[in-house]
Amino acid sequence: MGFVRDLLVFIHLIGMGLLVGMILLQLMAGREAPINKGWLHGSALQLLSGILLMVLAPATDADYNHMKLGIKLVVLVVIGGLAISFMRKESAPKWVAPTLAGLVVLNVGLAVFWN
Ligand code: HEM
């Protein structure tokens, strides 16, 4: 099961990279540019890999802080919700891209600093 956990952490970190890539892409596209679909794909990857890591914890001998994971889940749902709401619009309000970026950075911070 060690390999499964490593694989899921690998996928989780690739998903994080995708979301960080989205921050840069959105920055280059300009503040009122449409919200890229990649936000949704990155969020879906994080949701799936994160939940699997959590559910498989007893089998992988992992011991996670459930409060932290719950907050990360809520933050991710907000990211996904914003992406779904704005990605089909021709332009997004100025606050959407910086908010998405802030929420991604928040989740990375929670993951790393809250033990
Ligand atoms: C934007 C969304 C997210 C980002 C950027 C993110 C980022 C990260 C990062 C960077 C780590 C590695 C931390 C370390 O090893 O010190 C991590 C670990 C983890 N994340 Fe997330 N995460 C996100 C969402 C979620 C969600 C929604 C869940 C589940 C509810 C979740 C569950 C986990 C778990 C269980 C680990 C520990 C993996 C292990 O070392 O065994 N994550 N996350």
TrEMBL record:
The chain crosses the membrane at residues 7-27, 39-57, 69-89, 95-114. It comes from the Bacteria. Keywords: Membrane, Transmembrane, Transmembrane helix. This is Integral membrane protein. It comes from Herbihabitans rhizosphaerae.
